[in-house]
Amino acid sequence: MKMRLDNRKMQILRAIIDDYILNAVPVGSRTISKHPGIGLSSATIRNEMADLEELGYLEQPHLSAGRIPSDKAFRLYVDDLMSNADLNPEEIRAANNYLSMKRGGIEAVVRQTAIALSDLTDYTSMVLSPQLRGIRLRHIQIVPLRELTAIVIIVTDAGITKNAFIRTPYNMDAELLDRISRRLTAQLYDCRVVDIDTNKVMESLYEFGNNVDFFKALINGIESNLEEGSKHIELSGAGNILSHPEYNDVERAKHILSVIEEQESLYRVLRDATKMEFTITIGAENENPGMRGCSIVTATYHMKGKPIGSMGVIGPTRMNYAKVLAILRYMGSCLSETLTSMLEEDS
Amino acid sequence: MKMRLDNRKMQILRAIIDDYILNAVPVGSRTISKHPGIGLSSATIRNEMADLEELGYLEQPHLSAGRIPSDKAFRLYVDDLMSNADLNPEEIRAANNYLSMKRGGIEAVVRQTAIALSDLTDYTSMVLSPQLRGIRLRHIQIVPLRELTAIVIIVTDAGITKNAFIRTPYNMDAELLDRISRRLTAQLYDCRVVDIDTNKVMESLYEFGNNVDFFKALINGIESNLEEGSKHIELSGAGNILSHPEYNDVERAKHILSVIEEQESLYRVLRDATKMEFTITIGAENENPGMRGCSIVTATYHMKGKPIGSMGVIGPTRMNYAKVLAILRYMGSCLSETLTSMLEEDS
DNA sequence: ATTAGCACTCGAGGTGATTGAGTGCTAACA
DNA sequence: TGTTAGCACTCAATCACCTCGAGTGCTAAT
Questions:
Q1: In the β-sheet with A161-167, what is the strand arrangement from edge to edge?
Q2: Whether A28 CB is under 7 Å from strand D
Q3: Is B233 in a helix, a strand, or coil?
Q4: CB distance B59 to B17 below 8 Å
Q5: Whole-angstrom Cα distance, residue A317 to residue A313?
Q6: Would you say the C-alpha torsion B239, B244, B245, B251 has a positive or negative sign?
Q7: Is A343 exposed, middle or buried (0-12, 13-18, 19+ CB in 10 A)?
Q8: Which nucleotide is nearest to A29 (CA to C1')?
Q9: Residue B67 backbone phi and psi in degrees, to 5
């Protein structure tokens, strides 16, 4: 006999998950039978639960306990069952309050966003700094620093500066480097990384002598510098994981903390997440084995309509997906708006 | 009858502290009487312990437990009793291993140092980014960004760039701003912040029109930018606090984590600590009430012989001060050396 | 198909006894 | 006079044991 997930099973599963998200305690048949909207006795629920367990949606920690939803159940939940929440006015006020202090440039805004996210959700939050790919060049300046070494400064239309050291083939003086800077600026003004035509730029530098390797290194440096973007991640509320009962086990908590601190894998998660408006990764779906047992929800933010970064929340698999999504949605649009307006208005 | 801390009491206290640092468990009279170098019976030790308690060096969690050293005892310990440790070859190898990858500029080095510190000590570590005060100016460049807004880029001899937005009084074109930049660079080349003579610089800008407010804002911007230094703190091993039994209480751990994450007070600690070669702050000596119960040990690092920043370790009051000091001393000199050499050699 | 009823399971939490590491005090001792 | 042996006492930790109750599966009646 083939079991199917009929409507009633779905309803029951949903009630179980809702309860579990709220209480973090295995939920029993009686609890569900008393649930408004479900007019069934606990015995019936038990039968259904047994079916759901067989289908892989529920798990039993031990015989005489209730059931807890599996990763698979949460997947179903976020895909089909979840009713999406909205922020209440109070939360919106709180969120705006965090963001009101937009002094201090992009980094400060990103940091404030991270703090707001972790405080509002009560989970750990992370915000990837804006990625520069697609941003346009405004100015290039090469400054001699000491013997045979110069520093290359790149300014973009986002008001972000980056800099890199470069080795010069001989002791080029400030004047020469300045002329080269002007030529480069003229050539590359308003270019994005992808627009850079190395050969053409090289040609335009011929008059400054036969230093092919140096020029090549210079252009490569500019390109790679713009391309790599900033790998910086702003974290906040790392301690929040200790608030949730699943991490009362100190060993577990320590482990997660070290994974979070390492940042490299978080960077990969956020980088990849920038391709999609929202992502939800549940428990074992995480690539990093250390993150199994956690869920990650992310949202993208934009600048002038283009996605340039993403932010996310790390919590237990039983996190309140609906609420987290709502908060991420709101904060994402706030951040997008702020960043875009920082380009247009005074700052 | 006046009790004094005679030599024997000191020895006993020292043995107690050593033992407590190692085991984190109240230590009893029998343990000490068996301690090599102390040829006394437990009964005698008990008498001495009672005296030490009366003098405020020991505390009893409850009647039938051993004693634990008070903050006052630890203070005495680090000031007078402690024998200073040296790193063993293996630790030196490990430390060098962390620092071998000095690719990627100052931030990367600072980060690596923080990671090494936390891994070697098993406590939480923090490293304050180099403070620029005392660093010399190399280049100033003002670039128009959009209507009425420009970005000011400052390059120092440490190869550090900083940038700030500035509002222009009218739409100054790139050419004009460039001429102003050159003039400023000429005027301020090789200056430290403290050397800047605002009036003289203002005078030299007269020829660029009567924009007193703008010029003033410009110079102020440069000054304050250099002055404030970077408030960035690199943290590592936040999760390590969970390794120590005093933080098995989740509430306590959460509290400390939130204090650490807030960073503002850590910045103040490290900033102030830059004035001294080493500092040790024990328990209640901390200014931040949230940090009482912790100890902080810091060391200064230098660039070309001048102190430009400090690094520290946060742990329980019973931390292994001798070892932590040795590690900080070693890492401090490594960092100083690396930073100084980054100025001189290619990077 | 649903439900009431029942026997069974098992973790959580409470009780009480035991253990052992520790103390203070006193009296004997060198 | 300082040191030590000895003893009575304290108290947290641990363990065995018990009870409680929330939960289950199964079966028979509706």
A1: A137-146, A149-156, A161-167
A2: yes
A3: strand
A4: no
A5: 11
A6: negative
A7: middle
A8: D23
A9: -110, 150
d(CA A87, nearest CA chain B) in Å: 26
Give chain A's length.
Answer: 347
Backbone angles phi, psi at B197, to 5 degrees: -105, 100
Q: Does A146 lie at the interface with B, CB-CB under 8 angstroms?
A: yes
Which domains can be identified in chain A, with CATH numbers? 7-81 (1.10.10.10), 89-131+230-346 (3.30.450.40), 137-227 (3.30.390.10)
C-beta of residue B95 within 8 angstroms of C-beta of residue B330:
yes
Could you tell me the pTM of the whole model? 0.87
Q: Write out chain A's pLDDT in tens, 347 residues.
A: 456 788 999 999 999 999 999 999 999 999 999 998 888 999 999 999 999 999 999 999 998 899 999 999 999 999 999 988 899 999 999 999 998 865 667 888 999 999 999 999 999 999 999 886 667 888 999 988 778 888 898 888 776 777 788 889 999 988 899 999 999 999 999 888 788 899 999 999 988 888 899 999 999 888 887 776 678 899 999 999 999 998 888 888 999 999 999 999 999 999 999 999 999 999 999 999 999 999 999 999 998 888 989 999 999 999 999 999 999 999 999 999 998 887 664 33
Nucleotides, chain D, CB distance < 7 Å: 3-6, 9-12, 21-27
Q: Please tell me whether residue A249 adopts helix, strand or coil conformation.
A: coil
